[in-house]
Write a sequence for this structure.
């Protein structure tokens, strides 16, 4: 592996390898700000495959992110970026961690319905907990076949007892950011992007992907 090599993706369009509209809304402005042309999976006509669910079977966010970036680079021929992210709760020993997306085991659900089930489980597990510290973690990975890069970002906070705000996605309405003093569900996307785990991970990655001027 060549994780430490620097890349020059400005020579080719970069594939944003996620099917999450929420993530795409956060990532597109970041890439645009540094002049990197991007395309998402829908625009690239890369249809969902059951095999994609098997890509997130590692024990770390970094390994999962890199597995996704490698896979989508291989099937598209484009430089690809992907991430794996989740919530780590202190009182739950770091759970749900890498299992955040499917923590409730409701494989029949997706989108907001799945988010609702995951959040309901979170509240049940923390019902008697006085320690509600948590952190969001994101690993952002890049792969173009010759170069592989991985960066990590974190954002600290606490889990609220009730939902606050309707913005964001996932656990956002229950995650009160230490930096902002509000939940990620209460703040505009631009404000969340200043301190979010995903923004921090991708900012580091983009710094390495952007040619020095």
């Amino acid at each position: 592996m060549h994780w430490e090599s620097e890349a020059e993706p400005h020579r080719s369009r970069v594939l944003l390898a996620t099917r999450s509209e929420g993530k795409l809304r956060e990532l597109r402005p970041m890439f645009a700000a540094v002049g990197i042309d991007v395309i998402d999976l829908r625009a690239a006509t890369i249809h969902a495959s059951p095999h994609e669910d098997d890509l997130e079977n590692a024990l770390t966010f970094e390994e999962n992110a890199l597995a996704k970036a490698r896979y989508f680079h291989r099937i598209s021929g484009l430089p690809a970026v992907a991430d794996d992210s989740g919530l780590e709760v202190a009182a739950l020993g770091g759970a749900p961690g890498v299992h955040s997306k499917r923590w409730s085991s409701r494989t029949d659900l997706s989108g907001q319905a799945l988010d609702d089930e995951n959040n309901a489980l979170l509240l049940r597990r923390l019902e008697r907990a006085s320690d509600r510290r948590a952190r969001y973690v994101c690993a952002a990975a890049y792969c173009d076949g010759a170069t592989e890069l991985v960066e990590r970002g974190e954002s600290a906070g606490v889990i609220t007892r009730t939902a606050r705000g309707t913005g964001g996605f996932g656990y956002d309405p229950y995650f009160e950011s230490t930096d902002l003093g509000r939940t990620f569900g209460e703040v505009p996307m631009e404000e969340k992007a200043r301190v979010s785990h995903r923004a921090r991970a991708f900012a580091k990655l983009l710094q390495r992907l952007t040619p020095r001027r």
User: Anything to note?
Assistant: The longest helix spans residues 61-76. The longest strand covers residues 148-159.
